[in-house]
Amino acid sequence: MNSLINNLLNDSRIKIPKHIAIVCDGNGRWAKKKGLPRTFGHRAGTNPIEGITRDCSELGVEVLTFYVFSTENWSRSDEEVNFLMKLFVEFFIKLRNEVGENIRVKHIGITDNLSPELIDEIKNTENLTKNNSGMILNIALNYGSRSEITNAAKNLMHDIDVGNLNIDNVNEEVISNYMFTSGLPDVDLIIRTSGEMRISNFLLWQSAKAKLWFTNDFWPDFRYDHLQNAIKHYNETD
Ligand code: IPE
Ligand code: MG
């Protein structure tokens, strides 16, 4: 185990968040700063995933969510979107081969407009890791919170309509179970890189009580140090 992680774990005052959600932002600016095309930034953005996943798992985080593509990101140039979609195919293959053995990978978001090849790799990765009992790794890809809530509302109304659910029994827990994150703990800590202080349609329902931590560093430069500082911030009382 990483000795730095031991430091955090050995500090009995430190509470580890159950669910950490990260908005991976700044790939384009990372590349621009180096005089490289944006696509290089996206490729570099896959680098921190494996290490941060392992670190979170060793720390005892129950759920880690990476926001890698929002429903709003389709408005980018065709060239960039096409590049990202191909990169995500490689990403899922790499993910299931490289993240710790006991990690369960789940996709949150909609599959509309994703290529059949990408949908296949997502499903393969979910299936191959579905019996793992360790940390859940959510990949928010083609995810948007309002679309998730709209979808949840429709499904809930349908269940009331057909008599599967009684309107008097609808409460917050029931609504939570209509989200993609059904059965998972709420988000305790949101991390966003690259100096942007926005929520960007990310886990609005699940983050009602979350603490936020921001860094000016770009996502491809994200390391354990950032994670440690974010967790320390989570522990600060205010
Ligand atoms: C985040 O980096 C990755 C995706 C949204 C796919 P950006 O592509 O948003 O990088 P910036 O914000 O333009 O630097
Ligand atoms: Mg951005």
UniProtKB/TrEMBL annotation:
One of its GO terms (cellular component) is cytosol. Its EC number is 2.5.1.-. The keyword Transmembrane helix does not apply. Keywords: Magnesium, Metal-binding, Transferase. GO terms for biological process: polyprenol biosynthetic process. It comes from the Bacteria. The keyword Magnesium applies. Its cofactor is Mg(2+). Substrate binds at residues 26-30, 38, 42, 70-72, 74, 76, 192, 198-200. Mg(2+) binds at residue 25. The active site is at 25, 73 (proton acceptor). It is an enzyme of class 2 (transferase). Belongs to the UPP synthase family. Catalyzes the condensation of isopentenyl diphosphate (IPP) with allylic pyrophosphates generating different type of terpenoids. This is Isoprenyl transferase.
